[in-house]
Amino acid sequence: MKVDVLLGLQWGDEGKGKLVDALTRDYDVIARFQGGPNAGHTLEFNNQKHVLHTIPSGIFHSDKLNLIGNGLVIDPVVFKKEVDRLAGFGMDIRHNLFISKKSHLILPTHRLLDAASETSKGIGKIGSTLKGIGPTYTDKTGREGLRIGDILESSFVAKYQYLRDLHLSKIRQFNYPFDLQPLEDEWMESIEFLRSFRFVNGEYLVNEWLESGKRILAEGAQGSMLDIDFGSYPFVTSSNTTCAGACTGLGIAPGRVGDVIGIFKAYCTRVGSGPFPTELLEETGELLRTTGREYGSTTGRPRRCGWLDMVALKYTVMLNGVTSLIMTKADVLSGFDTLRVATAYKINGIITTEIPFDTESPVEPIYTELPGWKEDISKIRDKETLPENLKGYIRFIENHLGVPVTMVSVGPDREATVNMG
Ligand code: GDP
Ligand code: IMO
Ligand code: MG
Fold it and tell me: Which residues pair with 27 in a beta bridge?
């Protein structure tokens, strides 16, 4: 068997949570492979909205298994809150959630370091979610990190104190005010809570599942344009959000990757700082934000909005080897006379179809205009009844990217999808 991978092709928030939940019926296992509580994956069904940060989006299907892979960074405090919220809906997820022993722990001082570092950057800040992601991955690659499996060792508290003290000296250098005690108390309590979950050697488990014929869907977090290597560095997150991250974040060989499902919004959004060539700073951007309810699922920050950027999409389709596309939020584009799609950039007078290395030079998008549609499509479930101009919009994207759009999402609900196959 192979592992199919679903990941975001833009700057995150493409609707991964909704689609993973909707596709879970076709799989036995859903496995998150990177990121941490910077992610906010929204699912809606039965008029109820849920936001997941660490827990895979297959969790609402009680007969399916979920794995938090070694590539994640976990904040026990956020994790406990997520589990408690699900318990409020009568769910006990201990029977169908596994956590890799090799995933890393976010300490309270990682969060403080994130905040101190961002504050020190002033207007040059990344716009981090301040969940401690950067400092935790820094410790992982710096070989200082604490892992979930360490919780089971008798040396755990000593290891924690050593790392905490290293952090404290750095935070003091930033001259950043803090009160650690309440954060530490809450964290230690949450560590105790975490002990009741199943810690596993995720890489063995995932390969055993494959051998026994289980169908696995790997769920990405963030989006490819936030990838640590290929995103608009330094305005990125600290993990590989691209397909390769599924191999290192779960322990599967590259040849085990099956379909790569790339998900993108029918337009673009970005939260936090960094280049966004097609950003709309006037009323059209505001209209997209209001109609699309574009406010961060994790931080509540307003998302920056703009037209679809095909230069970025072509880049991320290439990086990930995308085999099929899902377009979300098509319903939000209803009502426009004309839609614009960027197919090239002009940088310092030169036209290019490549993402530039330099994130400083102003980029002017070169647009192609396409006719819009007026109909409310949120109730449509059959591709034949989609407006002709929407079908034309999709065809244009497919031709440009050379990959088929197999599904279109027309609303936040689990059922609001149109199969294009
Ligand atoms: P994720 O991080 O990729 O899982 O995406 P988020 O959950 O952060 O943001 C996507 C937002 O759009 C959520 O509020 C979803 O409920 C919502 N959403 C997902 N698909 C659609 C869609 O097709 N139409 C509309 N109107 N909303 C959608
Ligand atoms: P999901 O999985 C959108 C952005 C932050 C910031 C940058 C670095 O819901 O799509 P970090 O906290 O990782 O240090 O922030 O990355 N960012 C996201 N933007 N969706 C996300 O996740 C994001 N996770 C991080 O806004 O610009
Ligand atoms: Mg999100």
Answer: none
> pLDDT digit string (tens) for 188-201?
999 999 999 999 99
Tens digit of each residue's pLDDT (9 = 90 or more) over 228-273: 999 999 999 999 999 999 999 999 999 999 999 999 999 999 999 9
User: Does any ligand 2 atom lie closer than 6 A to the CB of residue 17?
Assistant: no
Spatial neighbors of 403 by CB under 8 A, at least 6 apart, are 262, 317, 322, 323, 324, 325
Strands (DSSP E) contained in 145-231 are: 198-200, 216-223
The reply to whether ligand 1 has any atom less than 6 angstroms from the CB of 332 is yes
Positions marked active-site: 13, 41
How far is residue 406 from each of residues 41, 141, 215, 297, 376, measured CA to CA in Å?
21, 38, 19, 26, 21
Look up the pTM and report it. Answer: 0.98
Residues with CB in 5 Å of ion ligand 3: 13, 40, 297
Q: Which atom of ligand 2 has the smallest separation from the CA of 220?
A: 2
Mean pLDDT of 143-158: 98
